[in-house]
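Project outcomes to date are best conveyed with an example. Our students and postdoctoral researchers have been running inverse folding experiments weekly, and each run begins with a structure described purely in tokens. The record below, which covers 286 residues, was selected by the lab manager from last quarter's runs and is presented without edits.
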């Protein structure tokens, strides 16, 4: 008996009748009648050759090759587009930061307004009337919150003045819709014989070219924004990992309670800011 399988080279035992790796029978030791069964007959050879010819004929088919080529081109095109994702232009990113800051200020301002409403309930507390120290404490808190709200309002107006509205992606989308309308209207006018053929073809090509250029610009911007969103989500995942580690250290009694709570507040603030950014960016690409 051979020491190795003649088909796959797997080491064999004396008692093996089949290779445990490839499943092929071990010819030595098998009766001649069974060996004959395992031999390839002329008919089998003919069928195998027939199958080979069929495969050759199929792969030589022009339509099949063209379809495969087109499929590869599409895949390649997709890969290229993914590979050529570029960061956003500075001026666009600057505008997006303004939108993010604006939404962040609105969120903080609303939190302060809610806190102010809650604190104003203390004015109806009888203690406010007779306890001067309590009254002074409440008044100081009220003044501080009102000052912060006023500062946020000033900052909000300042940012609002710098923001370009609508955002560039929406502006481009509006321009694309305008081009679509122009193309439809041009076709309608041509069918009514209000535009000659030469003018129709020149204008049609012009509108189509402008529309395609706008679509490409929109695609590039949208791709850049989505790339930024991915980066923010990754950052969020990293912060959550740090937060879990912090919890683990606290449960292991490596961190005192106060240090743990302070760190938790820090994590919450960082995560809220990232959530505001992600939400703003997702709104801008709708």
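After processing, the design step wrote out the following sequence:
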């Amino acid at each position: 008996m051979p020491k190795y399988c003649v088909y796959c080279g797997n080491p064999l035992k004396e008692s093996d009748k089949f290779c445990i790796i490839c499943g092929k029978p071990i010819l030595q030791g098998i009766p001649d009648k069974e060996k004959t069964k395992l031999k390839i007959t002329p008919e089998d050879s003919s069928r195998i050759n027939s199958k080979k010819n069929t495969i050759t004929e199929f792969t030589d088919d022009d339509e099949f090759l063209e379809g495969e080529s087109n499929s590869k081109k599409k895949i390649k095109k997709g890969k290229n587009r993914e590979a050529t994702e570029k960061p956003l232009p500075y001026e666009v990113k600057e505008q997006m930061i303004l939108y993010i800051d604006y939404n962040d200020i609105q969120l903080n301002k609303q939190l302060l307004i809610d806190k102010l409403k809650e604190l104003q309930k203390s004015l109806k507390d009888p203690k406010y009337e007779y306890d001067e120290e309590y009254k002074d404490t409440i008044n100081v808190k009220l003044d501080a919150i009102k000052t912060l709200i006023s500062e946020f309002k000033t900052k909000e107006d300042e940012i609002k003045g710098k923001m370009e509205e609508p955002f560039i992606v929406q502006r481009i989308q509006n321009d694309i819709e305008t081009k679509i309308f122009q193309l439809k209207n041009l076709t309608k006018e041509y069918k009514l014989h209000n535009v000659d053929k030469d003018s129709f073809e020149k204008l049609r090509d012009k509108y189509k070219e402008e529309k395609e250029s706008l679509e490409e610009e929109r695609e590039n911007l949208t791709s850049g924004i989505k790339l930024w969103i991915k980066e923010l989500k990754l950052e969020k995942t990293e912060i959550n990992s740090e937060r879990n580690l912090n919890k683990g250290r606290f449960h292991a009694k490596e961190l005192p309670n106060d240090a743990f709570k302070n760190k938790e507040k820090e994590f919450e603030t960082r995560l809220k800011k990232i959530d505001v950014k992600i939400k703003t960016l997702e709104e801008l690409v709708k």
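DSSP finds nine helices and no strands in the chain. The radius of gyration is 37 Å. The training component of this project remains on track.
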